[in-house]
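QUALITY CONTROL LOG
STEP: pairwise intake check
CHECKER ROLE: data steward
CRITERIA: each record must contain a sequence immediately followed by its structure tokens, with no blank fields

ENTRY 1 OF 2
RESULT FIELD BELOW
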Amino acid sequence: MIDGTVLEFEEHLLLKEGLANIFGKGGVLKSDNDSASKDSDDSSSKDSIDGVSNLIDKTLLARDGPGEQIPGGILFHHDSVIENRQIKPGHTRTIMNSNQPWKKVGIPNYEPLYSFLSGVPLISNCDGWNQEDKGDNELSIKTLPIKSQFFSHTEIYSWLGRHAEVGPMALSIGKIGYNYSIFLQYKNGEISHYFSIKKDLDESKILKSILPLFSLSLDLKKTKKLTKTHFKEVEDQEDLQKKLKSLEENQTQKGYKFGLVLSKNQSTDDEIFSNEKGSCKWDRFLNLMGVKILLRGWEHYKGGLDIDNDTTGTHSIYTNYQDNEVMFHVSTMLPSTANNTQQIDRKRHVGNDICVVVFQDGKSSYSPDIIKSHFIHLVIVVQDIGDDKYKVAVSTKDGVELPIEPSIPENGIIGKEQIRDFILTKLINGEQAALCAPVFADKLHQARETLLQDIFNNF
């Protein structure tokens, strides 16, 4: 007989070579030449074996290779397979040269099985997307940045200005006692500096002293630094500060809308958006992310959902996280249309979100480009692996700067007590990072520049 080794997974005889490497000790229950493993009582072995058996029981396949179809079984083989023996349904034995690398051949319609066997990642690689690297062993979740409250100062003085490179801008000084906050608003956002002076200074002297700091922050060359000549005095300070405060409030995000999608080992968005309900794992995950709310009459942040006529469903998932309102667009809660495989209404809401969480209720890898969208720039894939633990992976579209806090633990596994904090912090920070990508930032900067120019012209 050709040199070969057979591995038995309960009633299924599969190749030891390759499978043993994939599962380690969890895959070797009994082999012809390794009786010691037969006595293993490792629970992870039993779980792995049961998982393989259950998957194989659901598979009817053996083609495109030298063997024949085996009812109820699955055939693995190798380029140098010499003999395939057909046993009773549910069994397959392959004799092969054990010195050659093992490979899977001919599983056209059951990729989840091979994903389970080969240990593929939660997120697959695809053009235009970048997987985020894992960080340290310990999960560290930092507090989200505090929203600007500059215009809550009691004493404020502001100037308007223009610069060839910076464009229209507003510079404001806020004072509380001897503590000063300096706030520059320009097309790309805002810059703040803080300092204390234990004596009263008039505004013109403060302006002269702090302009070099902003020139440095804006990375302006020496010949193009900010000077007092770039700014003009404004008499009506009260009206000016109302306009600047309104600008900042309109540009400050009041709430976040994120997609929350159920996938059952599916490979098209039509399949994913046709899911009407999920397993108890999906329900538990939704409960972790927020509370189920009735949309009709909802008085808080609505995230673009209809709160009057139920056209976007009757319920959704909402939470307030560190003073940030979050409304999820839950794929199974958005309305579906009977006999419509595309489910346009569901795709429209999730496809217009910048960040999407995909709950993968299965073992296959998820490709971040499955849901076609110009807006989606961050995808978090989550998988319930049991024992109150979740496996996570993150991918971002080209143009989004990585890493995004918090980093993924080295083993990619997060406990139930931390998964909510991890995902919500990742989503909020991820949206801020995505908005800095050129596809969003250029449009936001143009809009902000137009508003600042209007304020400049009106004073």
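ENTRY 2 OF 2
RESULT FIELD BELOW
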Amino acid sequence: MLRAVIDIVPLGVTTTGWAVTVGLVLLLLAIDLALAVARPHEVRFREATIWSLFYVAVAVGFGVIFGSIAGWDFGGQYFAGYIVEKSPRQPHRSAPEPDRASACWFAALAPAGVPPRRGPNETPSRAPKGPIATKRLK
């Protein structure tokens, strides 16, 4: 009988290393939120693409620095995990459930004053039309 053996090697991250990592993540979050509050607007495709590319570059930069410091065995594991997390998921064959994470974000960010994309009486273009659908959306 074959057994898979996993050697757990301690990474040995110092307290300073953790403090720098957490500090940089909090700094990025603070800058991102400050920019969002300073100029609330509808985010267009171009701006979303630029921000997405920026954060992918941050993740790749972190992986390169991490691999240089901790060794490329750990760096390779980081990039493998990053690719798996970024890869598209297979959709379920059942009816889709409401995305609770998105609903929580919308509820949390609603007071920030981001203007809505549609007017209050407009229905989304992909939504079913009719009195029942209109009543649910209001």
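INTAKE CHECK: passed for both entries
DESCRIPTIVE NOTE, ENTRY 2: DSSP finds five helices and no strands in the chain.
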